[in-house]
Amino acid sequence: MATMPVISQAGQPDIVRDWFETPAGRAILDSEHALVAGALGSHPGLPWLWVAPGTAAAQVEGRGLRLTRCGSLLEGPMRCAAPLPLPSEAFGAVVLQHVVGGREDTLGLLDEATRVLAPGGHLWLLVLNPLTPYRWRWRGTGIASAEPLTWRRRMRDAGLAPDAVSNGVGPSWRVAPVSDVQNGPGLRAAYALRGQKRHLPLTPVRSRRVMPMPAAAPAA
Residue 190: its pLDDT value, please? Predict the structure, then answer.
């Protein structure tokens, strides 16, 4: 029986960040930029939060906060760790781009990102694809990933409703950006999963007691 690939990038975030600064890693980030920009602009009435593994080659317009993961810290306009010094339910869109690891990841970015996401907002998770031939580009670095099923389960555990289909992004083998996005990860170097924070009532709604109907009078 085949086993699920192990998520090991969580314990070595500096290795992940350094690899994404190589030409092979940069090709993935460049391929994802249009998707990231569209995701961050999907809720224009609220600011966005974008956490990435390195310095962005291109900027994204709009009101938002961009942070870089450096080990157990996040750096940018502010320097912080978890829990994030950000208000709850304040961001309309959140993108976690290759910065979330496995369950041993003590930073807890997925849970914190869900906390700061507004009800009705979307969180986009971009991760490496364990089934792509491009994985040979990061072979020997200690970086690994998992299939979409594992990430959907983690997103549900965090309180999100993930989409049923992921989007494959990036090249399959050549070190060059690929602009188009496909349904399903396929053989692409990475894929994106979107989850929504559903609207919930502030207080539990008590169900109404059903009143029994009186028995009908017998016909004359």
Answer: 97
Helices 109-116 & 148-158 angle (0-180, nearest 10): 50
Report the chain (220 residues): mean pLDDT per 10 consecutive residues.
38 72 94 95 94 77 90 90 93 94 71 96 96 92 84 94 96 95 95 89 44 47
| 209 within a domain of the structure (yes/no) | no
Q: What is the CATH number of the domain that holds 117?
A: 3.40.50
- In angstroms, the CA 23 to CA 49 distance is 26
Q: Of 165, 174, 216, which is closest to residue 192 (Cα–Cα)?
A: 165
Alpha-carbon distances, residue 116 vs 80, 123, 124, 148, 154 (angstroms): 15, 10, 13, 23, 17
Long-range contacts of 199-206 (CB under 8 A, 24+ apart): 199/119, 199/120, 200/119
Residue the block writes with tokens 């086993």? 3
Q: End-to-end distance of the chain based on CA atoms, in angstroms?
A: 72
Instruction: Confirm whether 220 is domain-assigned.
Output: no
Kindly state whether residue 218 falls inside one of the protein's structural domains: no
Whether 3 maps to a domain, the answer reads no
The answer to whether residues 10 and 102 touch, using CB atoms and an 8 Å cutoff, is: yes
Residue 186 one-letter amino acid: G
What are the backbone dihedrals phi and psi of residue 28, each rounded to the nearest 5 degrees, phi first? -70, -50
**pLDDT of the residue at 160:** 96
Query: Which pLDDT value is given to residue 12?
Result: 54
Total domains, the chain: 1
